Amino acid sequence: MSRLVYILNGPNLNLLGKRQPQIYGYETLADVEADCRKLAGELKLDIRFHQSNREYEIIDWVHEARESAGAIVINPAAFTHTSVAILDALNTFDGPVIEVHISNVHKRESFRHHSYVSLRADGVIAGLGTQGYQLALRRVAQLLEEKKG
Ligand code: CA2
Fold first, then answer.
1. How far lies 72's CA from each of 21, 96, 99, 117, in Å?
2. Centre of ligand 1 from the C-alpha of residue 65, in Å
3. In the prediction, which pLDDT does 19 show?
4. 75: confidence class by pLDDT, cuts 50, 70, 90
């Protein structure tokens, strides 16, 4: 099983740390990527870290992951609540999928309470801030170990 993990981020997450810190905190997406790279090194995982404001790019990365990756960590951002297309793409991926939300979506507007991606995700992390990405990576490392047997 490949130890490559795709970490995918949806629309507006490029603004992380620059707006609405009361909801999303002060870390930028570059900080999150650096933290993930450091932890991935410790866990002996390789990562591809991407962000896009375009749904089709996220779908294309999921297709790429099908060819080479062992797991996907995804914060689909607003596409969480709207995208059957991302759900369909994730359903073609065989390895573990962990869904991450920085904020506690269940404490927010009701339209954030439903996630299409959760219909595929093996685990969901919400409301733990940007630390959620690292917790997701730790879980993925464990699941990949278990699969190795
Ligand atoms: O809590 C999360 O991680 C979300 O996925 C973030 C999405 C939101 O639509 C989801 O309901 C929950 C929004 C991402 C926007 O990111 C920003 C970051 C900083 C400033 C403005 C937007």
1. 26, 6, 8, 12
2. 23
3. 85
4. very high
82 lines ligand 1 (CB under 6 A): no
| Best probe residue, ligand 1, of 14, 86, 105, 117 (max atoms within 8 Å of C-beta) | 105
Catalytic residue among 26, 50, 63, 101: 101
Mean pLDDT (whole number) for 81-93: 98
Residue 149 predicted with pLDDT over 90: no
CATH annotation of 4-148:
3.40.50.9100
Q: How many residues does the chain have?
A: 149
Domain ranges of the chain: 4-148
Query: Do residues 145 and 103 make contact, with C-beta atoms less than 8 angstroms apart?
Result: no
**3-class secondary structure, 27:** coil
Provide the pLDDT for residue 1: 80
* Whole-model pTM over 0.90: yes
